[in-house]
Fold each of these.
Amino acid sequence: MSTPTEILVSQPTAADAAHAPELPQIDDPQKVAPKDARALSALFFERLQVLEEGTHAYQYARNTLIEMNLSLVHFAAKRFRNRGSGEMEDIVQVGTIGLIKAIDRFELSREVEFTSFAIPYIVGEIKRFFRDSTWAVHVPRRLQELRVTLAKAKEELAGRLDRDPTVGELAAHLGLTDEEVVEGLIASNGYTAGSLDLPIGTEQNSAETITYGDIKGDLDPAIELVENLHALAPLLEGLGDRDREIVAMRFGQELTQAQIGERLGISQMHVSRLLNRLLTQLRKNMLAPN
């Protein structure tokens, strides 16, 4: 009877490797056409699963698979070329990491094309790169590079001075003007965005925490009112004199329906019916497509 270990573990043997197909020698795998790469990849994966890791044959098979399928990385990277962060070279390098992960985890027994298996790995790695390294606020490339230079200079000077360097000391160390250093320090704040729920301190004698959201501006409801009035103005011009007067008294002077009735010599119920008709008409005209 087989032991549990014998049931679970099935390592490739020398006999398996001997019966696996021989691999062709490809001088420049990146020049292999995508259609041919698909067929050759299946052959290389079949060989790879029976070769011993660390051997020259294994490294050749794995490296060839990587180079043959780099076209998948370039294909996936194209959709990110307008993201405005990172050079295409950086994106391709990150995507190649995803390709390598896909190659190391792919199994022929999955009965799925390697292309379909690899693309999610490649795209996922690129998206992770953008999530972890994209600037929260777009700044010129010059300032992005200056941020790195300033960070290194600050670390170096802090070690020498045993304190944080001043703007003047950074400028002298880097051969820049004070204004250029200040510009770089301000731009570095755009690298990450803080949460509006982040506490900034507490009032004395108060258990209430103050957050950035508490002191930041909000949408002004008056803006919407201005927009509505702007849209309403030409519609009011189309009303008759009495209708326009009723609207002005109710919403401009804020008179009650009874007060409007007294001024016009009509009942409150009559004013109510007139207002309902006017508001229905105005609402319908405002919502009507241009």
Note: Residues 1-19, 202-206 have pLDDT under 50 and may be disordered.
Amino acid sequence: MLLPLSNVPRDYAWGSTSLLAELEGREPSGAPEAEVWFGDHPGDPADVADGTTLDAVTGGTLPYLLKLLAAADPLSIQVHPTVAQAREGWARESHLAVDDPTRNYRDDNHKPELIVALSERFEALGGLRPVADTLRLLEGLGDSDGVVALRTRLSGDGDVLRDAVAWLLSGSAQREVDDIIRAVDAASSEEFAEEIAAVRSIASRNQGDPGVVVALLMNFIVLRRGEGIFLRAGLLHAYVSGLGVEIMAASDNVLRGGLTPKHIDVPELLSVLDTTPGVVPVLRPAADGPVTAYPVDVPDFSLRRVALEGGRLPLDVSGPAMALVTAGRVDVEGADGVAVTVPVGEAVFATADETALVLSGTGEVFLAQPGA
């Protein structure tokens, strides 16, 4: 059975006032429009065409949450736990109300994420940069007291990245944080010009936030349309700007590390954080054929991008599945052969008994389902 899905955008402050409206071909609402959720998450289950919501169909058992995400300003720097960490944290905080703002664990699940760019440029921070590279970047910031203090910490022994993050977020380093942010504003580096410009822009929106300097330790990633990154448990990240399709395990577990007025629990963040430095691989669209798979090593979800150029394209699915249309005019057929036209910015849900979908038309579709 196929069920058309829609939802209203969530108005988080970092949302864009134009990107979702442009995608859907409508006038902007004038308010920030940050995310559109296609899932059965109790916080905002998708609307079914018959007037119900998707959780009434699934019983809240869908293992993934599919979203459109439109960022005009940076989201919080954050990290997500493993399943084991989430279960332990959920049990430890069982005495707190679920909506307690100091609560770190809203459920007992992990929250790996995959984001694929829909805009021609999507900016993100992902993972911690190799220390030697960051030391070269800091050379472009001069020798003020804060910069020297950070450089000294990164030149020590042991887990210097964990030590630096803990120091920056401790509350005792605000003088150095402010000094480093001033140095970023005046910095010059040919090798790291794009990274410094990105952090300078982040600083302009987050005055005095220690997360600005944490961002200076992270890889700056630019995705082009159709490119994606997978963000595993423990990996520090933040989306900066752009429009994308995001899919994640169905969870609300977020440990924040800056660029937010929300609760930050530094010890818990550090207990979850993986400080292994390195680049985050960019997953690129297929060079040939209409289907791009974005491989991830989690059982909660998988995602394929389908570029349709007319005709009919049958694709096997392992439900429950969703087809989210992001461009053009696309029809989706299930086992009964009845075509459902899916507007851009909306989706169709295929119940678990559907084993194949036929896509037709011209446009772009993202096909989500549980992972292998």
Note: The longest strand covers residues 302-316.
Amino acid sequence: MTGSSSAAFSDTLINALKSILGPGGLLTQDTDTAPYLTDWRGMFHGKAFAVARPASTEACAKTVKLCAWHKIPVVPQGGNTSMVGGATPDDSGRALVIVMSRMNRVRDIDRIDNTMSIDAGVTLKAAQDAALDAGLMLPLSISSEGSADIGGILATNAGGNNTVRYGNARELALGLEAVLPDGRILNLMRRLRKDNTGYALRQLFIGSEGTLAIITGAILQLQPKPKSIETALCAVADARAALELFAAFRNAEPSAIQAFEFMSGLSMQLVNTLIPDAPLPLAEPSPAYVLVELASPRGGDTLRGLMEEVLGKALEDGLVSDAVLAESEAQRQAFWKLREEHSEAQKRAGTSVKNDVSVPLSAIPEFIDRATTACKKLIAGIRVAPFGHIGDGNIHFNLVQPEGADGAAFLACDHEIMDAVTAIVRDLGGSFSAEHGVGQLKTYMMPAWRGGAELDVMRHIKTAIDPEGIMNPGKMLPEVG
């Protein structure tokens, strides 16, 4: 027997899904499905015949199997925080959006292995809190951690603030559980640091943006909970000074650096102006800022002395013009709020074009200078607001519409702006997507950047695992022809 050649959304199909998903597991009313059909930035708006909310891996598998039978496209969605439209369906109305929010159990924390077994629908913040309650730390940290969930984070191989020390999501995942496009459950939930038995399949699904499977569970590596943390906000002249300061900390004690974040003066000004209770804690505004955090699992460590020593020398040398150290956890959180609210502040300032790029660390100053010049030549009055994870080479080179400009007209230039920026990134040996993924926003870039054998291999993998092409269609891989 074969499934139907088109999705006929009959009462029989809807009832079958309801039977699988249970009460509250299937949303069909427009008012209920609407929040799942638009991306966080408001750039992409799609349609779906329903939104499924499975409460278990088995329910998710049965749902996907039914979709495979009817050749219904499936769009996996986590916290719907994608910056590139990676979890938004197209406008055909044929897709079923599958949301993981009801799969929200922390299954187990092993204090000997320092691992956490967890459902995909657990938010990153809830996972962090569970680890802390066990006296451990989940070192992943991103701005949207209150809403982004573990499945989406792994599907996009999220990076974030602590990548400079602990790596991306990929480095933290030991095991994985996923539902394949035919509805089979792939169980790779092994808590092993060493397992040399064939292809590392979990790594194939991490970063695949939901185009190969739906991640339903994971085993994550945890770290000892820091007992000493020192955080400082520093005023610097530019990215060159920021990198020199990073080198000073790295030369003094590389293992102490937990985060090292760069913020441009304009981007910080937007936060101070548009975000409530986010004042600048320095005497004067600066052309750029660095947020540096040191951490150690040892109590009574000398991190304060290290922070003061490095910053003292930087102040003497003119590398830093001003700095303030957090004197309490509340002040530390206030510093981090200044960093985490950049995307929201830019959203409130108007339409923005976002470039999530990476280049070698030594090339960052040249990249920012050249890209700033190129964008200002393109559009008069454009507001250049870069910020990001300068310690690992990832800069969010964001462009905000000129004050008083028409947002739609500005957004219509997004490809021209992105292409101008990424041309410089490519010249410097970088990547057009460092951590946000490709989604549907940047698929057009893939042939030029990943064409030839590399893109062919990706397509072969997609065809082998998802021959009907039902899993998150239109994302990451460009259409052929």
Note: The chain has four domains: 11-99, 106-224, 228-342, 350-434.
